[in-house]
Design brief:
The protein is of the alpha/beta class. Helix 4 packs across helix 5. The radius of gyration is 20 Å and the shape is globular. One of its GO terms (molecular function) is oxidoreductase activity, acting on NAD(P)H.
Length: about 325
C-alpha cells in the first residue's frame, strides 16, 4: 500500500515522502479501513513540524481525521465489512489503517466523503467550545481567524443559538463571505483597530473569545473582552504565545482557559457523546451548517495538495483521496 511518512520532524515539503508499505493486519479489537478521503488540518502541519500536543513516534504518517470503508472487521465482527466509517487516528495519510472498533463511527447515509472526512475535528470542536463557553442568546462571541474552516462552522452554529458573532480577518474580500454565513461584525485587523471597533459596536466588549492565533492578535482579542469575560484558546497559528496583560486579568476579572477536543470528549458521558455526534451530523446532513472544499488531490499528489493548502486566500478544505 501507499503511505505518506516522515522520518524526522520539519516543514512538510522538506520531510514528507511517499513510500510503499506492507498491508497492515488488525489486532483482535481493531478493524482495517480502506481510507477514501482525508482533509488537511492545521494540526496535521503542526504534528509534522513537531509542534503539536502529541509527539510523533518516528517514522510516522501524517493526518488525524478521515473517512473510509471497513475491509476487515474485528474478531467480534462488531462492524460489518463494507461499512463506511468516520474516524480519527494518528496517521491517516495511508491507503489502509487499523483502528480500534470502538473508535469508529458509521458515516451517516448520504454524506459525501468530502464532507464526512471533515465531520469530526472542526465541527465537534465548534460544538464543544460553544457548549463549554456558557454563551447565551444575545451575548457576543469574538472569533479570531474566522475565515478558517473552523471559524465558518462556529459562526453558523452560534447563529442558531442567537449568539452575536464578531470575527477577525486579514482581507476585505473575506468580509462578505462571513457576513453571508451570519457574522454580525467582521473586522480586518490589517486595517482596523480591533479593540476600538469592538467597543464601538458592543459598548462593553465581547463576552467570550475563541482564539486560534495567539501572539499580538490574541492579546488584542483578550483586551476586547468585557469585565468578567473569558478567552478560550484552542490554537496557535501565529506560533507565538499570547503576551498576557496581568492588569486586565486582575481588574477586569478575565479568565483564560485552553480547549482541546481530545480532552473535552474524554470527559463526556456516553449519552453526551451521542448527543454531540447526532447534533453535528444532523447539521451537516441538513446543510444548516455547511463545509467548503477548495480542491481534491490523490494521496500521491500530496505535494501539490500542500501547495494548495498554503495558498493565500484559500476558502475551503484541501482533501486527499485514495
Amino acid at each position: 500500500m501507499k503511505q505518506v511518512v516522515f522520518y524526522k520532524t520539519g516543514l512538510p515539503k522538506e520531510v514528507l515522502q511517499l513510500e510503499e508499505a506492507p498491508m497492515p493486519e488488525p489486532k483482535a479489537h481493531e478493524v482495517r479501513i480502506k481510507v477514501t478521503a482525508r482533509n488537511i488540518n492545521p494540526s496535521d502541519i503542526m504534528f509534522i513540524r513537531g509542534m503539536y500536543g502529541i509527539t510523533p513516534k518516528l517514522p510516522s504518517s501524517a493526518g488525524f481525521e478521515a473517512v473510509g470503508i471497513v475491509d476487515k472487521s474485528d474478531q467480534k465482527g462488531s462492524i460489518a465489512v463494507g461499512t463506511k466509517v468516520i474516524f480519527t487516528t494518528i496517521g491517516t495519510w495511508k491507503e489502509y489503517v487499523c483502528v480500534p472498533s470502538n473508535m469508529v463511527i458509521p458515516s451517516p447515509p448520504g454524506m459525501p466523503d468530502e464532507v464526512a472526512c471533515q465531520a469530526f475535528v472542526n465541527p465537534l470542536t465548534a460544538y464543544g467550545m460553544l457548549e463549554s463557553s456558557g454563551l447565551k442568546d444575545g451575548q457576543w462571541l469574538l472569533v479570531t481567524a474566522a475565515a478558517s474552516a473552523y471559524g465558518k462552522l462556529v459562526i453558523q452554529m452560534a447563529k442558531q443559538k442567537g449568539i452575536k458573532v464578531a470575527c477577525t480577518v486579514r482581507r476585505d474580500e473575506q468580509k462578505e463571505l462571513l457576513e453571508k454565513l451570519g457574522a454580525d461584525l467582521v473586522i480586518n485587523t490589517e486595517r482596523e483597530k480591533l479593540q476600538k471597533v469592538i467597543l464601538e459596536q458592543t459598548q462593553e466588549g465581547v463576552d467570550v473569545v475563541f482564539d486560534a492565533v495567539g501572539g499580538v492578535l490574541g492579546a488584542r482579542a483578550l483586551a476586547s473582552l468585557k469585565t468578567g469575560g473569558k478567552m478560550m484558546v484552542f490554537g496557535l497559528l501565529s506560533l507565538e504565545n499570547i503576551p498576557l496583560n496581568s492588569g486586565l486579568l486582575i481588574f477586569k476579572n478575565i479568565k483564560v482557559e485552553g480547549f482541546w477536543l481530545t480532552t473535552w470528549m474524554a470527559g463526556l458521558s456516553p449519552e453526551s457523546t451521542q448527543i454531540a455526534f447526532r447534533t453535528v451530523f444532523t447539521h451537516l446532513l441538513s446543510q444548516k451548517v455547511k463545509v467548503d472544499v477548495e480542491a481534491t488531490f490523490r494521496l500521491e499528489k500530496f505535494g501539490e495538495a500542500l501547495e494548495a493548502y498554503e495558498k493565500e486566500g484559500r476558502n475551503g478544505k484541501i482533501i486527499l483521496t485514495s
